[in-house]
Write a structure and sequence with these properties.
Blueprint: E1 15-24, E2 27-37, E3 42-46, H1 53-61, E4 68-73, E5 76-77, H2 83-89, E6 91-93, H3 106-112, H4 122-127, H5 131-150, H6 166-179, E7 184-188, H7 196-213, E8 216-220, H8 224-230, E9 233-238, E10 241-246, H9 248-252, H10 255-262, H11 267-281
Parallel strand pairs: 3-8, 3-9, 6-7, 7-8
Antiparallel strand pairs: 1-2, 1-4, 4-5, 9-10
Helix pairs in contact: 3-6
């Protein structure tokens, strides 16, 4: 079978987002969003605050159901599949705001990531015998020998999450997502709030998880230096719409992207944008036939 490098036109996309629209009442968070994620690639979704990036992530991972459009994983329609089932199919994610159990240890938080794949039933768990014991041993071995070692957090494995720095908590959240055995690792602002050293460490982990584990990465990020250095493909959102996409150099040179982030300096253009956004937020007055 012929193989193709990440992003090659001949490669079938691992994830396809096609014409996705998401509305909350009369407010459209996303409008006809479409892009592909190639297997083995690092794809970044960028855009100004309020552009719809986290709404897009929540739609792909199954927390929101789109009003229109479709999402396909390995060619299979998953648009109406619940979030837990999508996790079992290979979508693992972290969150913009850290969603760890602060009173639990690092190890216990990471183990929770494997929950969707465990086959132990209630009786096995109560007796802690047979399958339950084997699964627990395999899970602990995998986490301790692969994930904890990979992310260099062995020294904090028994520490409560509440005692960790912000940067280490973000690393633990990535570890929990990796424990889900994802085919696509979705990272929502993985370096937000980090200092330079922590950012460089996280960038290294993202590159290594793709190179060593073969995991495809889809991330939302504001750090443009990191996005341009790491990404194979960049998707730019503004007001819930894709305004540009392509390789980093092409996106960076796109004047629409510059205007989205910096503005054109034209007051009339800014006023027109605000008025268009306000019209989009108005409830529809059309009556269904």
């Amino acid at each position: 079978m012929a193989t193709h490098p990440p992003g090659s036109p001949g490669a079938a996309p691992l994830l396809q987002v096609d014409g996705v629209t998401l509305a909350f009442g009369g407010v459209k968070a996303l409008t006809q969003v479409g892009f592909d994620v190639q297997a083995g690639s690092i794809t970044a979704v960028i855009g100004p605050n309020g552009a719809g990036k986290t709404s897009l992530f929540n739609t792909i991972s199954g927390f929101y159901r789109p009003t229109e459009g479709s999402i396909r994983l390995r060619g299979q329609e998953i648009t109406r599949i619940p979030a837990p089932q999508r996790a079992r199919m290979g979508l693992g994610r972290s969150f913009q705001n850290i969603a760890l159990f602060r009173g639990m240890t690092v190890l216990d938080n990471i183990k929770l990531g494997r929950h969707a794949h465990l086959r132990t039933n209630v009786l096995d768990a109560l007796l802690y015998w047979g399958r339950a014991r084997r699964e627990e041993a395999e899970l602990r071995r995998d986490i301790e020998e692969r994930i904890i070692d990979f992310l260099e957090i062995d020294h904090i494995r028994h520490a409560p999450v509440s005692a960790l720095s912000y940067g280490l908590q973000k690393r633990v959240e990535m570890a929990r997502a990796l424990a889900m055995q994802p085919e696509i690792l979705m990272l929502d602002e993985p370096v937000a709030g980090m200092n330079r050293e922590e950012t460089e460490d996280m960038a290294r982990f993202i590159l290594d998880v793709r190179a060593e584990w073969g995991v495809t990465v889809l991330m939302v990020e504001h750090d443009m230096g990191m996005v341009m250095d790491l990404s194979d493909h960049v998707v730019v959102l503004n007001f819930g719409q894709v305004i540009a996409q392509g390789v980093p150099a092409v996106v960076q040179a796109n004047p629409e992207v510059s205007r989205a982030y910096l503005g054109s300096g034209n007051v009339h253009e800014l006023r027109a944008k605000l008025q268009a956004a306000a019209r989009g937020a108005q409830p529809s007055t059309k009556v269904a036939a």
